[in-house]
């Protein structure tokens, strides 16, 4: 950790751990629901940990990318890396320094002459912080937020500023979230909170996650996922995912968007879509694109773009719920067994 990072992180750590965050008030109102009523859908490319994979997955139709973020023992963000075990038929060991990864992503998606400008609207960061010590977790949030400001959002017009989903593993990792928010607020970047969303990515009880958000005073921008590696999807029941969708559809539930992971084959992608999810993490984005734009779903779904807010909640109508339940009689959705396309 450089002296600059150490001073930033130490200052934040002292302040963060002694006080609760103020209530997050989002100044940007949710955009009105589109006249056609279709729900924006997120095709989330999985385990995109190299600059080559950024371009590859965007070419294949992804409008969101998921990357795995590793941290040093003291909490300093290092870069992208997953490691073993990982999904079947994927390389587990690709890694990229965080500054290089974010710089490339900004250059191909957010600048005036970017080749994928307007296509990608969400960067999903899977934060590998569970093994960090309690004191290192806020440091992780601070140093990550610092890099987002410096490398992803610098010199980007607000209209094309990338939205970022901070996905911690478990409720016990909440100080990572706290650290990132506190850094942005204390360093005068509060306006950037409109581009930040939150997730607890593993399988903590939904009630525990709801309590965490209440304690952190976060009242919006909340995603919730459920799933398992594509190698083991066939053993994962759908009860928790269905409960998350039900909370999303309710008036009082904490969830704004629901995603399913990791689904690769068209047959199972369609089953997942019929559960009412807002996005799918996949190794095969072209398969998800084909399903979402097919005659079966094109009247209900649209591929999300930068014009769509990833924080806006779209509830299903009672009729849509009945249709989905009638077309989905399974309690298991398998993953896939295809190798990623080049």
From TrEMBL:
It comes from Rhipicephalus microplus (Cattle tick). It comes from the Eukaryota. Residues 1-19 form the signal peptide. InterPro entries: PLC-like_Pdiesterase_TIM-brl. Residues 315-342 are annotated as: Disordered. GO terms for molecular function: lyase activity; metal ion binding; phosphoric diester hydrolase activity. It catalyses: an N-(acyl)-sphingosylphosphoethanolamine = an N-(acyl)-sphingosyl-1,3-cyclic phosphate + ethanolamine. This is Putative sphingomyelinase. One of its GO terms (biological process) is lipid metabolic process. Gene3D superfamilies: Phosphatidylinositol (PI) phosphodiesterase. Keywords: Disulfide bond, Lyase, Magnesium, Metal-binding, Signal.
């Amino acid at each position: 950790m450089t002296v600059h990072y150490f001073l930033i992180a130490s200052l934040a750590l002292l302040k963060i751990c002694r006080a609760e965050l103020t209530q997050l008030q989002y100044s940007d109102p949710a955009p009105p629901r589109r006249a056609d009523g279709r729900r924006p859908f997120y095709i989330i490319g999985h385990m995109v940990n190299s600059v080559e994979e950024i371009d590859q997955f965007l070419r294949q139709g992804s409008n969101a990318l998921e990357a795995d973020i590793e941290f040093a023992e003291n909490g300093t963000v290092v870069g992208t890396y997953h490691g073993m075990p990982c999904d079947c038929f994927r390389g587990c060991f690709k890694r990229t320094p965080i500054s290089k990864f974010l710089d490339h992503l900004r250059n191909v998606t957010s600048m005036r002459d970017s080749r994928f400008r307007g296509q990608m609207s969400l960067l999903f960061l899977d934060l590998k912080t569970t093994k960090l010590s309690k004191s290192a977790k806020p440091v992780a949030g601070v140093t990550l937020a610092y890099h987002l400001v410096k490398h992803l959002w610098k010199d980007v017009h607000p209209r094309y500023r990338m939205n970022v989903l901070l996905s911690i593993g478990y409720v016990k990792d909440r100080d990572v979230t706290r650290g990132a928010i506190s850094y942005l607020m204390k360093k005068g970047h509060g306006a950037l909170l409109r581009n930040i969303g939150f997730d607890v990515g593993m399988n903590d009880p939904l009630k525990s996650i709801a309590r965490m958000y209440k304690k952190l005073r976060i009242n919006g921008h909340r995603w919730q996922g459920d799933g398992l590696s594509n190698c083991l999807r066939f053993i994962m029941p759908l009860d928790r995912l269905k409960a998350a969708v039900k909370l999303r559809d309710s008036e009082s539930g904490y969830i704004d968007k629901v995603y399913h992971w990791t689904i690769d084959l068209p047959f199972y992608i369609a089953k997942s879509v019929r559960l009412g999810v807002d996005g799918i993490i996949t190794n095969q984005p072209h398969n998800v694109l084909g399903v979402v734009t097919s005659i079966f779903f094109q009247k209900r779904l649209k591929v999300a773009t930068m014009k769509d807010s990833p924080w806006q909640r779209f509830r299903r109508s009672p009729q849509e719920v009945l249709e989905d339940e009638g077309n989905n009689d399974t309690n298991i959705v398998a993953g896939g067994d295809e190798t990623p396309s080049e």
